[in-house]
UniProtKB/TrEMBL annotation:
GO terms for biological process: ERAD pathway. This is FAD-dependent oxidoreductase domain-containing protein 2. One of its GO terms (molecular function) is monooxygenase activity. It comes from Geodia barretti (Barrett's horny sponge). InterPro entries: Auxin_biosynth/cation_transpt (IPR050982), FAD/NAD-bd_sf (IPR036188). It comes from the Eukaryota. The keyword Oxidoreductase applies. It holds the Pfam family Pyr_redox_3. Keywords: Oxidoreductase. GO terms for cellular component: endoplasmic reticulum lumen.
Amino acid sequence: MPFPLRPVTLSARAMEVRVLLVLSFLSPFIVRETLSRNNVHKYCVIGAGPGGLQIGYFLDRAGRDYIIFEKNTTAGSFFTHYPRHRTLISINKRHTGSKNREFSFRHDWNSLISDDPTLFLKHYTDEYFPVADVYVRYLQDYAEQLQLKIQYETEIKEVDKGPDEEGADSCFHLKDQNGVVYRCDILIVSTGLWVPHVPDIQGIEHAQGYESMSLDRRDYEGKRVLIIGRGNAGFETGNHIVGNAAYIHMTARSRIKLAYQTHYVGDVRAINNQMIDTYQLKSLDGQFELFTGAGTAYIAKDSKGNLFLSPMDKSFLDDVETSIFSFKYDTILRCTGFMFDFSIFNDSVRPRYSDAGQKKFPLIQPTYEVSGVPDMFIGGIATHSLDYKRSAGGFIHGYRSPARALNRH
């Protein structure tokens, strides 16, 4: 005879336990669905440097659905490491003698556009050439006070384009370091120029890169130093160690371009040109216009650990200034600039190289859209290909207004 069925009654505590068990079983699915919705945006911005923050501000104030991805833990993280010797060459012009705000803002090379009157770098320092650490604090305040939507510690490792979730319209797929995929209709890449440019020179592995070289002057005490690269990075490096080194030679593929002669803000600035004085006043330091890259000379090391340059073609000795080949060095420093990071893009969306700047910039249209990739735009310093060597697009005061134009586009 079957047992009679009895109604089951649960205490409040038992019911609570069962509900919790069910929720704990379902929670992974609930969370996964929430994350899936949060990973889809109309606009995605890669990089929370000055360029990314500026376009983020305009997107935010326009009420757009956007997110900024930043691989590090702070906005403007590039400036936590660069410039290596910590002095910016962008002018902090605090007073102009004019009451016209727009006129004064034109002479402020560092501040970003915003509706907050406290967010001007002149309120942070009175140094004409600011210290980089102060600028990092300014950028972080800009991000926090304006409540920009930034997702930190998210490094976008792969960018592709394909169907959306419904398999219909095409959208961008961004994969981060953890394999999480984000989708957006419009992508703005503001990662700046941060990949070290390593010249195609045999033996370049013997040189220490600007990105990792020692800043301890004692490491250069009495040393014979060769610096490859004669831009601002090379000259700031020479200035830093000139009081310690036995002598410093500098070489590059072209003549020195001085900003006060060319009127281009990215050429060698007067604040950095101390090494020209020591050369012209015969203080053992030297300047050579020889190092033109692969096929011209190579770096070698002898059995005693001395480094030296040697020409590929010995007949080359008869045609150019060759005294640099007679010197030996203890240290060679590579200060040859930076490039845009092309590595994160899959073939379908990888930008082509611009003719400007030795392949350091992506090829873009005057609208800042990547040539051949609809709806992918470039922001910040990487837009400088449009006015390279002609205007100030390589500095913050040169690309903050283009960010506003991009937002309106």
